[in-house]
Amino acid sequence: MNLRLSFWLGLLPALVLAVGLPWSAPAQADSGHPAAARLGRSAAPAEAAGDARVIVQYKRGAALLAASPRQPQHAAALGTRLALTLSNGRVLGERMQALRGKGLSSSALAARLAAQPDVEWAVVDGRKSITAAPNDPFFGAGQTAVTPVVGQWFLRAPDSTIVSATNAVGAWDITTGSASITVAVLDTGVRFDHPDLASKLYAGYDFVRSAIEVDGSGGTDADASDPGDWNSSCSSTRSSWHGTQVAGLIGAATDNGVGVAGLGRNVMVLPVRVLGACGSGYDNDIIAGMRWAAGLSNDSSCSASSTPSATCNPHPARVLNLSLGGSGSCGSAYQTVITELVAANVAVVVAAGNDTGHAVNSPANCTGAIAVAGIRHAGTKVGYSNLGPQVAIAAPAGNCINVAEGSECLYPLMTTLNLGSTTPGASGYSDSFTHPSLGTSFAAPLVAGTVALMRSLDATLTPAQIKTHLQTSARSFPATGGTDGTVVACRAPSATDQLECYCTTTTCGAGMLDAAAAVNLAYQATLAPTAAVSASTSAPTAGQSVTLDGSGSSASGGRTIASYAWAITSGGSLASFTGATNGVTATLATSAAGSVTVSLTVTDSAGVSRSTSTTLTVAAAPVATTPVTSTTSSGGGGGGALGLGWLAGLGLVVIALRARRPRVG
């Protein structure tokens, strides 16, 4: 009896391990909302190391609020708790106040306060500055040094007159762009000597072959400057300096007290010369230039310090602007290269074309391209712009409607220009008389500049995400404001010319470009919350319940997580939720073997969401087995007591063995 008891007591530890009795984990301290203490983009440029300024919001029902629920002044209590010298600042609401601290930085104090159990969030008390318009003399309205007197109207916030203005000034409140972002301009080349471009250009490359070359250089070389595109075969009487105009709209040096502003402001421009005489170019030159611009043709030794060559682009662009095109459907060659570029995370912005309301040109009509139509200042389609379902968005293209022949063109797009007639002359700017900038060629770079600002905030944005942001943020087309009562809604393109008309979402894209709103969407995406899931087990057995925990999720920029949403995204027949699916935790009951994927979507207090998922591998439940028992009447079976018959038999065997044992002589 005692032997048997000792035996089972000895096995008890092993049985505990085998059965898996639950052990309580130590409780974790409430970490508060440390993400809320992260500095926002609008924080002061530098923090005073020993002078902290923080804004705090206390949790509803916090014990600290009991004494003065409407006048939170809790510096003393928090200072004692944290062993810090704190002083009360302004009361900012029933649960919000400003605090000052000594001996640490604002971000350090915010982090420590955010970790307190009665604090909902704590953020740095940052500084803001007035938003000043750039000091480029031709930017604002009312300047008289050059016409048009409206200046760069298309960069300002829209109003009842300039309905289609892009609100670039609003985008600049969020970002003025980064020099780490490069926009390639595939065009006639640029004038490197223009004072508003000289500091904003990379060296680039020339892909124009001698057949359409105008400068006698004999073919491709490392000189992307524009020699002028006029020759005796052109229908025009002067060089266009087209690439210089496009480059200025994207990236003219801004706030430098000279000339005009560029929508992309601080981004860099990479000139790629693919158009020669009369502003024309061969497809193979253009396609080669597109691949080179993105760095797809770079050899293994190419680096940022390399000299440009046909197989080395030291500064690959992630945005390409093509203010060019031709009639017809998208050919296989262009579709192949655009597909390749999109796969390499390169956004390709292309002008829809200027064929008086006909079908979108190629390569703007290729899948993956961001096609841009042109609209007047009033928001109607400008007469020359093409249109169709391939258009992604519309942007100002300049117009002179309602102006008598020889009079001032009121709403062109003012940009950088060379004033030479056929060969390079003095640097200057487009104006309202002899050099107005008009065309979808100049609508496209406004979109490309906006994309560059978006990528300045988040370089990982895919072309599809960029297009979605542009279209989601676009402003609706107006249904009034046309030149006269004869203006009608735009229709699908046909062989018939289609002049000014009221745009629709099937003809001119999703709406009018709103640079500020598009850039804000990109900015909000950088502040998206982090969704995190942990599971009580990632390999449950069928029939076992799994606790899913989303408490590791966090918000940023002073925000908090406002809601949780759990869902089964695959394997729904193998498991189901047994309770609420909108809490920080959820319980999943498994029923059969296989893989089950569960997603968690968290939404922050600003309405921005992010999702994540986790996959559980459910094992089959073990098959129950029946213990083997003795069939004799005397056996106890299994671990029972020894029967008397069995003992008697054993005794007889022992006696027989002793009888046969040899005796010692």
TrEMBL record:
Task: Region Disordered: list its residue ranges.
Answer: 218-237
The UniProt keyword set, sorted, is: Hydrolase, Membrane, Protease, Serine protease, Signal, Transmembrane, Transmembrane helix
Entry annotation: catalytic residues: 187 (charge relay system), 242 (charge relay system), 441 (charge relay system)
| Key word Protein biosynthesis present | no
Query: Which residues are in the PKD domain?
Result: 529-625
Compositional bias (Low complexity) spans?
A: 220-237
Q: May I ask which residue range the UniProt record assigns to the signal sequence?
A: 1-29
Q: Which residues cross the membrane?
A: 637-657
Q: Which InterPro entries match?
A: Ig-like_fold, Peptidase_S8/S53_dom, Peptidase_S8/S53_dom_sf, Peptidase_S8_Asp-AS, Peptidase_S8_His-AS, Peptidase_S8_Ser-AS, Peptidase_S8_subtilisin-like, Peptidase_S8_subtilisin-rel
- Superkingdom of the source? Bacteria
Q: Which family does it belong to?
A: Belongs to the peptidase S8 family.
Q: What is this protein called?
A: S8 family serine peptidase
